[in-house]
Amino acid sequence: MEMEPSSIFFMKSDVSVPGPNQSPRNHTKYKEIIATLPRKENVLGAQRDSYIHEYQGYWKASLEFPERMLFIKYEDLMNDTFLYVKRIAEFMGCPFSAEEERQGFVKKVVDMCSFETLRNLEVNKGKVLNSGTGPFKVENNAFFRKGKVGDWKKYLTAEMGAQLDQITEQKLIGSGLSSRAP
Description:
The protein has 182 residues and is mostly helical. The protein has helices at 5-12, 28-36, 45-64, 74-79, 81-91, 98-102, 105-112, 115-119, 158-172, and strands at residues 128-129, 138-139. It is built from nine helices and two strands, in the order H-H-H-H-H-H-H-H-E-E-H. Strands 1-2 form a two-stranded antiparallel ribbon. A hairpin with an 8-residue loop joins strand 1 (128-129) and strand 2. The two termini are 16 Å apart. The model is unreliable at 7-24 and 41-45 (pLDDT under 50). Pfam families: Sulfotransfer_1 (PF00685). GO terms for molecular function: sulfotransferase activity. InterPro entries: P-loop_NTPase, Sulfotransferase_dom. It comes from Hevea brasiliensis (Para rubber tree).
């Protein structure tokens, strides 16, 4: 599953999202980190380059082995969820029959897999992930953000988002991929 670079920035970086009493737009740490991304010695560069390398590898594999690798953009999945759930089912060799579609099974699967449903499962309400012997405890609900396309706009300015897009586009040159939503 592929996502736009601004979303990846939050998922792949060690930058904390501002707390409820902080203004996201005034959180200068994002701006400082984005400014270092084009340089080789940047804080997140190795991690970001690693993501882009993985992204290109999955894309190449999906072209070479389409029966083994399904490449879907998260934004596309969110824009036409029913189409992509059916495509995923077909890819897995379990297509919905015409009768199942008439009975609303696709909608049932979409509803069961929604962020809202998963977030509200008992296992994800306030329980702590067993992190082994380390000092850090992580609540299960920390793994759920909003699941909305473009939520990064609450934390980055349009200029910062454009910078991330530009950096990613430069690294994708020649791959046949684009970080821009269609």
